Every structure is written in structure tokens, then in C-alpha cells.
Inverse folding.
């Protein structure tokens, strides 16, 4: 595999900085929530604007880049200080929604596309931050990568770069620097990689010395993030000896591992999975034309809206009954909350059935990204629940269990948790805050799952830092407006 250039040439800097600056200004005026991707995380712009040699060689360009960079910073800070006040539609919801493409599939397909040396572009890619950052990194000539808050990108790129000859660094936001990655790093080093911690042991940023990997036999806890496992599996066939991966104990997020293996098979690589052992022999990926399906986790927020609406007609485009995504299980689970699903050639049509359970009990070990949606939906429908298999929620963008408890308490609901994996609500209430503002903790799914609360609260709901939805569903607010929701900006 041809390795990216180790240094940035002046000519590249000039073009990259100008292009990034223009795009960043456009984002500042038209989509401020995307500035983090467009400006702050563009290494070329910041590097060019603040390197003395470039100031001396290109004084006018230096001044322009500096101005753009400062304007972006100021605009980003303004955007961060904005809340959204969300109110329910004044009439019944009648809407057709073009959902974003699956982030999980998009990011895996991009890695496999690169590993296969494909000349084809992956079609219908997600336009979320994680995927944009993955595209930017894979197309970059840089050696230093800032992936922001994109956990998937951090993990997949760490494995990918470990086998690309060269010296690389990868970092992210302050939250990312506190998300553990030791399990993955240890596993890759055991396969022949050389990865070092640049700051705190066990956490990004990382320095990666890419080289050919030997492969071999390793063991991982079955309850770690499936992204660690997927990252290893995708590079496994390109190691000298292949990889035999033993998963110890209970395996969480099986569907996400299945997505990875099914996509690898579409790209020409077969693996065997027997009990708790996955074996991948040395093989070559084959380039293919690939189109990404719509995101079932994004669909869950419209299922929530249907469950909370007295009268609604919602069509969701691009969803398949026989989906690769484990989160497609949400359709059957929402049936217990009164939402029926009809599959069509275009996607799905949602309808009310009136069949609502008295208590919802479910193990989310295979669909952890749906947990927030169901927690919020259940309390707003006054349905007690007991949800298990939530251990991975502690290490997501935030500690999602604590975040849910804290924010729902503001609305008057008292949840309890046990063993870092169980969350339940038995109907206990308290006096809600007079004007609650839902904190999002740099977690897109907090904003996405709480916004539908406007349907059952006469005063609506206020969401802090709503731009976080860009991580997985950038046009969510626009889709809500099209469905009739009122969304107003308000400064902190």
C-alpha cells in the first residue's frame, strides 16, 4: 500500500488552506454546526496560518488564512453558546424523511475500500462528522490526524495506520483523550504493531509507527467495544499470518461484529466464527462498487416521534427489512410501544397500533445505540422499564447512563442503575425543574433522543449545544422543521 506523504509541501499547503478557508467560511454562514470538521480539525489551515516560514513567504495568504481561522473560532464559540427551543407541531405530523446513511456501514466500507485499493467511490456515504473525518483522513497527505470526537474514526484509523508504513500521530477532543483505547493498542502491538502513548497511558493521543504486521493469536474481553474488534478484523487478512481472535466471556454488540464480517465478505474476504473464536486467514480484498443503506439508529428517533404523537403519518426512506444493521431490531421493539412497521419498496411506513406494553424489559447488549431512545420514550409514555446489557454506554461520547439519569431528573423522572449495566425506572417521579435545559455532553444521541420530548411537554424542550447531532444526523433539525416542529435559537 502506498503510504501518505510524511510532510506537507508548500504548494499543498497553499491549496489546502485556501480551500479549507473558503469551505469554513461557507459553513460559518450556512451550517455553523459543521465548523469543527471544516476549520478547527483541518491541520493544514492551522499549521499554515501559524508557521513563520509561511508568513514570510506568503504574507497576504498568511493574513487571509489567519483571519479565516479566527473568524471560524469566533463563530464556533458563538454556535456552542446557542440552545434550541423545540416546540411540537401545531397540527398532525405528515412527513417523509430521507434518513442519513448508516455511519457504521459508511466507516467500515471506507476502510475496506482503502484496503482493497478500490478505484470506486463508496456511494451514499453518511454526511455525519465521523464519516467526513474518515474521508478527510484517508484522502490526506498529512501524517498528523485530529479526529475530534469521532470514536469510530479514532479506533478504525489506529488499526489502519498501524499497517501503513510511516510515522503517524492521531488525537482528538479533550473528551476523546479520556476515552480508553488501551485494549485496542495492546492487541495491535501483540500483532506486531508499534504504537506509543503521547500523553496519558491508555488514552489518545497516539504515535503510530506503521509497518507490515505479523498477525497471530490474541484474546480480547467479549464485553469491549465492538469497534475494537472490528478494527482488528478489517486489517487481519492483510497480516502475514492472519489473525485468530478469542473473545473471552459474554460478547456484547454481536450485530456490529456481524456487520464487519459481512462487509468483509462482500469485499472478498471470508472469516470463520466458531463459538467465541473468529479466525481470518491471509487474503486480499477485492474492489467492488458499494452503496450504503440508510441508518436504522437514525430511524429510531422517528419511531420515538410516532410513539409520542397522537396522530402522525411518517415514511422513512432507504431502510431494508433484511438489513446488515443490528439496530433494525428497534422496529420489533417499538411494536411494544404501539408503533407498527410496514415495509415498502421505498423504505418503511410507521403507524399506530394501540398495542402498548405495561412494562418494557429488554437486553440492549446487541443494540446499545438504541438505549437512549427507548429510555426517553418509555418515561414520556409513563411506561416502567428495566434495561440491561448497557455496559458499553459508560465509555461512549459520555457516560450515557449518568447523563440519562441527570437529564431526566430535570424533567421529573427518577431512574436507578446497577452494576454499570442496568438502568430502570419504576415510575418514581419528583418535581421537575421550572425551566429545564437538556445538556448534551458532546453526545449526539442525547440531543437526538430528547428533542421529541417537545411532543408531550406543553412548554416544549430546550436543548443545549444542539450542533452535536452533526456527528451522526447532520440534517436532523431541518427534518424536524419539515415535519412541523418549531425550532428557535436562544443564546445561553
Amino acid at each position: 500500500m502506498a503510504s501518505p506523504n510524511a510532510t506537507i509541501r508548500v504548494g499543498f499547503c497553499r491549496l489546502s488552506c485556501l480551500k479549507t478557508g473558503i469551505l469554513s467560511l461557507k459553513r460559518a454562514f450556512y451550517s455553523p454546526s459543521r465548523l469543527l470538521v471544516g476549520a478547527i480539525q483541518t491541520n493544514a489551515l492551522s499549521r499554515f496560518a501559524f508557521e513563520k516560514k509561511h508568513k514570510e513567504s506568503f504574507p497576504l495568504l498568511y493574513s487571509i488564512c489567519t483571519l479565516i481561522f479566527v473568524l471560524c473560532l469566533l463563530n464556533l464559540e458563538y454556535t456552542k453558546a446557542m440552545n434550541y427551543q423545540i416546540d411540537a407541531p401545531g397540527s398532525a405530523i405528515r412527513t417523509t424523511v430521507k434518513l442519513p446513511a448508516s455511519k457504521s456501514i459508511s466507516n467500515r466500507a471506507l476502510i475496506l475500500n482503502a484496503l482493497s485499493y478500490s478505484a470506486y467511490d463508496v456511494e451514499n456515504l453518511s454526511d455525519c462528522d465521523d464519516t467526513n473525518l474518515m474521508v478527510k483522513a484517508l484522502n490526506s497527505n498529512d501524517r498528523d490526524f485530529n479526529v475530534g470526537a469521532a470514536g469510530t474514526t479514532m479506533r478504525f484509523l489506529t488499526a489502519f495506520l498501524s499497517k501503513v508504513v510511516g510515522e503517524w500521530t492521531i488525537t482528538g477532543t479533550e473528551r476523546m483523550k479520556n476515552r480508553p483505547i488501551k485494549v485496542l493498542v495492546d492487541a495491535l502491538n501483540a500483532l506486531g504493531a508499534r504504537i506509543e502513548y503521547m500523553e496519558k497511558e491508555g488514552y489518545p493521543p497516539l504515535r503510530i509507527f506503521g509497518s507490515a504486521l505479523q498477525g497471530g493469536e490474541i484474546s480480547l474481553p467479549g464485553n469491549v467495544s465492538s469497534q475494537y474488534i472490528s478494527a482488528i478484523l478489517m486489517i487481519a487478512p492483510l497480516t502475514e499470518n492472519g489473525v485468530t481472535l478469542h473473545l473471552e466471556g459474554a460478547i456484547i454488540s454481536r450485530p456490529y461484529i456481524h456487520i464487519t464480517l459481512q462487509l468483509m465478505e462482500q469485499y472478498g474476504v471470508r472469516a470463520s466464527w466458531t463459538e467465541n473464536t473468529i479466525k481470518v486467514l491471509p487474503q486480499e480484498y477485492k474492489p467492488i462498487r458499494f452503496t450504503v443503506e440508510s441508518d436504522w439508529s437514525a430511524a429510531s428517533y422517528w419511531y420515538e416521534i410516532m410513539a409520542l404523537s397522537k396522530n402522525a403519518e411518517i415514511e422513512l426512506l432507504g431502510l431494508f427489512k433484511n438489513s446488515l444493521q443490528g439496530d433494525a431490531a428497534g422496529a420489533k421493539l417499538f411494536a411494544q410501544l404501539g408503533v407498527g412497521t410496514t415495509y415498502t419498496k421505498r423504505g418503511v411506513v410507521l403507524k399506530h397500533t394501540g398495542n402498548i406494553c405495561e412494562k418494557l424489559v429488554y437486553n440492549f447488549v446487541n443494540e446499545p445505540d438504541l438505549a437512549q431512545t427507548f429510555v426517553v420514550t418509555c418515561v414520556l409514555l409513563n411506561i416502567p422499564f428495566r434495561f440491561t446489557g448497557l455496559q458499553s454506554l459508560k465509555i461512549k461520547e459520555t457516560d450515557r447512563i449518568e447523563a440519562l439519569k441527570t437529564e431526566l431528573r430535570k424533567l421529573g423522572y427518577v431512574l436507578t442503575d446497577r452494576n454499570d449495566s442496568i438502568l430502570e425506572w419504576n415510575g418514581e417521579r419528583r418535581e421537575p425543574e421550572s425551566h429545564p435545559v437538556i445538556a448534551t455532553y458532546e453526545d449526539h444521541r442525547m440531543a437526538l433522543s430528547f428533542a421529541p420530548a417537545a411532543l408531550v411537554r406543553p412548554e416544549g424542550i430546550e436543548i443545549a449545544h444542539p450542533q452535536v447531532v452533526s456527528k451522526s444526523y447532520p440534517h436532523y433539525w431541518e427534518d424536524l422543521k419539515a415535519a412541523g416542529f418549531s425550532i428557535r435559537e436562544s443564546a445561553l
Summary: Residues 1-53 have pLDDT under 50 and may be disordered.
